[in-house]
Fold each of these.
Amino acid sequence: MDFDQYAEQAAAAVALPLAPGHRPGVVLYLRLAAAMAAQVDGLALGRDDEAATVFVPVAPEDLPETAA
Amino acid sequence: MSPGSATQAVRRSLDRIAATDARVNAFTALLAERATARAQRLDREGAEGPLAGVPFAVKNLFDIAGLTTLAGSKIERGAPPAAQDALLLRRLEAAGAVLVGALNMDEYAYGFTTENTHHGATRNPHDLARISGGSSGGSAAAVAADQVPLSLGSDTNGSIRVPAGLCGVFGLKPTFGRLPRTGSYPFVASLDHLGPMARSVRLLAQAYDAMQGPDAADPACVPRPVEPTAGTLDRGGEGLRVGVLQGWFTEQAGDAARAAVQRVAQALGATQPVHWPEVERARAAAFLITNAEGAALHLSDLRTRAQDFEPLSRDRFLAGALLPAAWITQAQRLRRWFAREVAASFRGVDLVLAPATPCTAPPIGTEWLEIAGQRLPARASMGLLTQPVSCIGLPVVTVPVWGCDPAAPHLPIGVQLIAPPWREAWCLRAARALEQLGVAQAPVARIDTPTPAALAAAGAPDVR
């Protein structure tokens, strides 16, 4: 994978300007993140391995007084 | 509480800060007037209770009424002051404690060293040329230096446990969802925890007890009843089955870290080896979630003023804004899988041990570490052994153990006492047993002045 090209395209997709001085560091950390993602991807997950993010509905009484 | 004791305690704390903080650099704001007035009021009212008149300070990501919440950054300096104290501060003060100030940290909590470029590094009170650890470095250093007996920090990937171990104090990272984060600056909502540090296990437990209780404003906070722990401490390790984590937790640990675990294991009668599966993948999942979620929180500022971020974490934040969604969702799925596997491992054991860091505190400015024969980046590697544990929200008390590093016998190293969810009391009881046996302790640092040569050799940045 060409991480430099990916950084450029992905940054454009989220409207994030990358200064030339920041780019080598960004590419370095993208490489590291890709290595971490490969680790995660290496484990086969099943249907019931639901993501560990659960939405909590918000009732009016849950709001702080200033926001009510 | 004896007459005038709150005022005396606050005066003593402020005097100690004045005498030592030019060298330690733990504090970013002092609340001398507020603390003195509050202490005088407590004395007048004859306040009672274990926390009455106890001075404390908090990582500067907690809201303090009238102060801007910096979260270690330069960017937030322009934000308006907080309208009220964070919920945990209010709960501690309702129990009689007295807030005296705000403490240094890694910017936006993204780091393990508190080498804060904007405010200077917080130095380890036991060796001023070395890091305090992070990201709650100011919280650990202030307690180790006896500037305050109690502090609060946050822990997303190890930010209470790493500095507590490196500075030689006790630290508690409760179960994820136990203490409400209302009124604190977030880092990674999926992983953020708040908790106390202290030089005694009893005070740690008393502070934790005073902060318990749900709050609907924090969606991650689980509505469980208060489960007091301080009254259980004298039961010590009685009846607790203790195991020692193997695999990743020994492979990524240096000799001093392994020696510290061995000493604690012996004291607690731990003989059972415990294996968690796929720890490296769990650590990778925590890394990705942290990177992406942290970056998303700051996307607006990354777009418009990236140059104002901490140089040590800016490029990581920028990269985090660019990660594919599939990586993050898979990481969150793996996290659930790992939590189930680890829960099964707790059927045969109540508590497991692991080092808090791979080594004792390195000199400020260290870029690379040699750990168990590997050359690793120093700053990220301080969290190698804490990250897989917070990834699944388990409660942990870090206890400080001394004299395990022959090259630095004056430095402590932390050992994590890890329990199943909601069993903070078991961690605290075992910590109390170790404290009573003298295996773990938190002595006051002498705050020696380092020679200029020592500071220069460490590449330490000038403070302030």
Amino acid sequence: MTAPALGQETGATWKKQPTILIGDWSRIDVHARLQSDYLVRNEADPDAASLSFEDRLSLQRKRVGVEGMLFDRVGFQVEGEIGASQPWRDVYADVKVNRALHIQAGRFKVPFSLEQLTSGTDLDFIARASAVSALSPSRDIGVMAHGRLADRMLKYEAGVFEVDAASRLWTAGAVRTLASRVTIAPLVDGKSRGSDALEISAALLRSDLPEGRGGLSGHLVMGDTFFRPMFVNGARTRVGASVAWNGRRAAVRGELIRSMDRRLGQAIDGGDLSNLVASGGYVTGLWHLAARDGHRYGHAPLRALDLTARFDRLSFGSAASDGEAFLNPRADQVAPIGKDAWTLGVNWHPNRWVKVQANTVREQIVDPLALLPIGTTPFWSTVVRFQVAM
Amino acid sequence: MTSTSRFMVRSAAALAVILACASAPASAQTAADLFDDGRLHTVEIVIHSRDWSDLHEKFRTNDHYPCDVIWNGLRMRNVAVRSRGNGSRYQNKPGLELSFDYYASQQRFLGLRALVLDNLVTDPSMIRESTAMALMRRVGVPAPREAPARVFVNGVYAGLYMMVEPVDTVFAQKTFEQPGLLFEYRWTYPFFATFPGESLDPYAVLFESRNLGVHSTVELYTPMRELFRTINEAPDGAFDQVDRYLDLTGLVRTLGASTFMAEWDGVFGYDGMNNFYLYRTGEQAHLIPWDRDQAFHALNYPLLAGVPENVLGRRMLEDPALRAAYMQAVTEAMAAAQGDAWLEREFTRQFTLIRDAALADGFKLATNDEFEQAFAELIAFARQRPAFVQNELASLR
């Protein structure tokens, strides 16, 4: 979110999106995003091969929203999903006290995972890595302080959020998350530090975990479940670390996440169970075959074209390591179950509004005790996404 | 001390013995021991108290809960239990299914993937189904084995249940001695074996796949569509074409026994087809009966009630050879029931076996008087049904 430049007049412009300018210090951008997926192959579904064209096509997102800055002091965003039962996505205001301190309040993404914090419009892959979608929180209602320190080299975010806050905000039964994330950008960019060429982040989350079957679950990219939620009770602690290097022709990112759930009083005889442990991560590489800077748009034969690759892993287990390992939701020693996935893709930006992505994913269940009926034969799936965003 | 009190004391003592030896190494017990219907078994379920409460509260769902199961000194861990049944779903005494492979696909208990604990709430006598299945097996129809059991949950008596061998791929492969595809008929509307059409979707609704592994809709339901097409479109005089898709010999044998027993909620039920499985080996499917708690409905229940309304039943009886085979099957079932007064003796034996446990079961729907009265009606059925059926057969000839 950038402040309007000095000297702008009141009016409207349209570059990538319509923008309303109100004097020198306020602007409102209008955003819209449409994403549609075409399923090419899904080996996990025996009926996929006989699907009709219409059944293969799905409308994934249709979002509209506004964001902007008022009086060079208050940033804001309001975004919703058209036709969804819970339409609101980001709805927040962000008050700038100074560069070192912003106060953001409303509904927005909990600061934890690098990839989860990346907008769906800008993702290099159609689906987020399994470790991110399974272990990282998305949006909640909360209040967060954030800012940049040390000549922009250090960025911090710290806040408190409430799960399902819309129905029990600030009540005694509220389920709260305390979140903190620190990012270091050690490389110099021009005259100041804080280049996004290299960012190293660490994050810590602690959430209340009400008694119930609220454990984390694992899914194949097409939605099939390979790890069902366990009974939990107590608190969930999540730690994460990420590195992102963005070069002129290539980019590399990596992230590790670990989650530990308490399970007080959850054994079948009412005793305590060992912590449920879920961990995972990914490494991605991206190669800009054709650059997407302003000069090349409209001139390069393929305009912006990227090749992408990712390996990601998600695994579940428990702190206990003795005794028999089971997969039932009250097992003390949870049997090790995981999933490895390779994704290869192409991203093509024919112009500034349109993006076409194609991803082929090879997923393989890791089940050393052979407990799952799904087996360990790799599944291949291929999806093409068409995105129009402004 | 009343009989109920004596029962509770004996039950507690038996349970203590079972729990004491629960950790003993497994001896060479088999599924045949589990389904030994000559004795009253005891099954202990250990489950989180909250799960047991949730299972009652959400008794209409199929949510699974983890538990341990103890039977005859064997403790099986990592078991899933859920509420089960259609019309028999009952909050105070839920029907239960114990799945041994739900949390571990290869896990078995005495070779079984699952065990049904029938809550017996739809039958005041509590022995209709077990006797019906016993008679089915006696005449060569593949039918599940059953044995009565007192069920304790976390040490508290939860009632008298019937342990029922589930019809699953283990049962079907053992019975038909070859791999195949298993389908459970799901009653969704009164269906009388008319042709549901070219789309495979209605067949998938009516016949739920109970198979492990991955199968496409085409693989599962194309032969099912051809079965019902042939039932409806086979030329007169050539109805035996159906045998390519459905074992008519087995069907006739099942129908003979079922109609003798005045089963009114089966394949040719009063409200359409109900309570059966199909196991398909190659193209041909075999019928497996299920849920006979409505057997012995009334001693004067017409032999062919429900059959003419059903396309399969009507066309089968229009075929002279199949009609003769059906009448022979009824005669054989009747002989099996009458010979040495087997049916009356079986009712009496089972009733005597479960009586104390049934009277102490405070969760059953029927009163103790209704339980005793239902037994009296079964005895009357055993004594008088053959004469009624003889008359019916005479009119069919």
